[in-house]
Amino acid sequence: MARVSDEPLVLGIETSCDETGVGLVRGNALLADAVASSVEEHARYGGVVPEVASRAHLEAMVPTIERACREARVRIDDVDAVAVTSGPGLAGALLVGVASAKALAIGLGRPLYGVNHLAAHVAVDQLEHGPLPEPCVAMLVSGGHSSLLLVDDVTTGVRPLGATIDDAAGEAFDKVARLLGLPFPGGPHIDRVARDGDSAYVDFPRGLTSGRDLQRYRFDFSFSGLKTAVARWVEARERAGEPVPVADVAASFQEAVCDVLTRKAVDACREIGVEDLLIGGGVAANSRLRLLTEERASRHGIRVRVPRPGLCTDNGAMVAALGSELVARGRTPSTLDLPADSSMPVTQVVA
Ligand code: KG4
Ligand code: ZN
Fold first, then answer.
1. Does the Cβ of 17 fall within 6 Å of ligand 1?
2. CA of 2 to the centre of ligand 2 (A)
């Protein structure tokens, strides 16, 4: 095996949503992970505004590349390959990253890999826990996506098992937080206040977990009914002139989300006969989700891998990690006309 210093240096760029991420990776070693977030600019709208995100990416791109190079103590022309999120994500936001990556690849005369954002969320775990067990099941839960994937080979073989049919898990956290008067993004706030709440206070619905729904949507999720149920419950309390027990509602809501997610993820592993479950995306930072997954998975001898919170949320290191794996496995780079594809299918790892 090559010494770490002999392995190619891969730069990864992520701009699919509101984080401008630039990562530098050599082999499985993370050298830099610079992130500039525009989340505060979106806070007053209660959600990410695409035009605002695109402009913020434009402004942050060059400084973030420079910061990553300083952190890694490398020069930009040391970079051996460039990887960028090609999709899925916000079209205008993706375009900034893709155009920047093309400019870099052309300027440096290096290969360019346009990669799938979801596969990158899977690949990032290698930076922390070493080579991915293949096959594994990956549960990706964030503000923009909620998917269960079967990963045979993170560079070529990612198959969807299920996904949300309406709101993403993080989106549900954000909307319910808003109902409860908590700031955006709501996930971390719900996580925090729920610690003092009773998770059995309200028995909120678990979407697509029984009867016909379960048959038809075996590994899919639905969170919009849950969000509406919370809204109705809160409205009824307010109409009655009674105070809303925020901690209890937050804990009960969080329990409903985590119950469904962990149940379906563990069922998928058991049905398919896979012994490793990976969790990624911003919602993977949720303390209850981590605990419940560990608890349920260990009962069936399933090992759980969760990258540290900073690597779960969107970042450039994840794109560089996947790029590095593509280089290591000798996969063909993208052509320079690679698109920013807002609805890139998960089965397509490289554009
Ligand atoms: O992966 P991410 O940074 O960006 C994308 O949406 O792609 O995920 C952000 C989402 C937000 O919806 C946020 O509320 C949620 O992740 N989140 C959490 C927690 N931390 C972040 N949700 C629940 N519990 C948390 N501790
Ligand atoms: Zn993401």
1. yes
2. 31
Dist CA 152 CA 246 (whole Å): 42
**Is the CB–ligand 1 distance for residue 185 below 6 Å?**
yes
Which ligand is closest to the CA of 147, given by its number? 2
C-alpha to C-alpha distances, 316 to 20, 68, 110, 121, 248, nearest whole angstrom: 8, 10, 18, 10, 36
Q: Is the CB of 144 under 6 A from ligand 1?
A: yes
313 alpha carbon – ligand 1 mean position (Å): 7
**Residue 43: per-residue pLDDT:** 84
CA–centroid distance, 181 to ligand 2, in Å, is 25
Mean pLDDT score across all residues of the chain: 96
Cα 128 to the center of its chain, rounded Å:
16
Which of 19, 42, 140, 173 has the most ligand 1 atoms within 8 A of CB, as the residue to mutate?
173
Q: How far apart are CA 189 and CA 208, in angstroms?
A: 26
147 lines ligand 1 (CB under 6 A): no
What is the C-alpha to C-alpha distance for residues 174 and 67, in angstroms, rounded to an integer?
A: 30
Q: Determine if ligand 1 sits within 6 Å of the CB of residue 286.
A: yes
pLDDT at 3 over 60: no
Q: pLDDT > 90: what percent of the chain?
A: 94
Instruction: Parse the chain into domains and list their residue ranges.
Output: 9-124+315-328, 134-307
- Homologous superfamily of the 134-307 domain (CATH): ATPase, nucleotide binding domain (3.30.420.40)
First to last CA, the chain: 29
Q: How far is the CA of 318 from the centre of ligand 2 (A)?
A: 10
Under CATH, what is the fold of the domain 9-124+315-328? Answer: Nucleotidyltransferase; domain 5 (3.30.420)
Q: What is the pLDDT of residues 227-245, one digit of tens each?
A: 999 999 999 999 999 999 9
Give the global pTM. 0.94
Write the pLDDT tens digit of every residue in 118-175: 999 999 999 999 999 999 999 999 988 899 999 999 999 899 999 999 999 999 999 9
Q: Answer whether residue 1 shows pLDDT above 80.
A: no
Nearest to 2 by CA among 328, 318, 321, 330: 328
